Amino acid sequence: MNFEKLIYEVNDGIGVITMNYMKNLNAIDEQMADELVEVLKLAEEDGSVKVVVLKGGAKAFSAGGDIGYFYQLIQAGGEVNMDGLIAKVGNVADGMKKMSKIVISSVCGAAAGAGVSLALGADFMFCADNAKFILAFVNLGLVPDTGATYLLCKNIGPQRTMELAATGRPVGAEEAKALGLAYQVVPKEELDEAVMKFAAKLAAGPLISYKNIKKQIYEASFSDYKKWLDETEIPTQAECSASLDFQEGCKAFMEKRKANFQGK
User: What is the pTM of this model?
Assistant: First the structure.
């Protein structure tokens, strides 16, 4: 597969996946989701890859969904059906947890919407000091997807998850670390060096042990993850994306105004 929205490089046992479509701040559309599914498969099957790093650009990790695309559909009177996209990003989310190799996310700048989920889906998350996490779904009349609600409930509990999901307020790098979500926070100019140093240390470690630690943790905490994605996340997002509130939220976002939600 030829990658158009990401760059994939393998050096010294470290597979580095760089989301690289800054035209829309690495928004997760179907093409990006397809490429992420494929690149994770490549990394899993490549015996020379010992550790995987997932990163974005200096300005943003990922802006989440492509709101501009949905806005165009709505303006044209078309139907917005996210089921296919949500299923694909669900495969990415579950795949990161299920793969045998440790995954490190490297977050610089904004991670919004599904971008938060991708960052949280790694086994270790490194943040630049300018990192900002925004569960922006509620501002569009949607629910978190790509596993965000599931992962946050596992990590910080249902009450704090409700707060972040229902308010959509930004969470800075230091708060993410205090919540136990980020492994390390460093100045943005030191992020790449810190991530690659840690990745190299892991790549020189006991890979069979790491593989089986991940397997144990997956079975203990994530064995129902794919079922939850398919049976809870997809239908709840489908109901929200079919609502008039979503249309209003999407229009308000693109038109830079306050949304007037009606609960319909």
Answer: 0.95
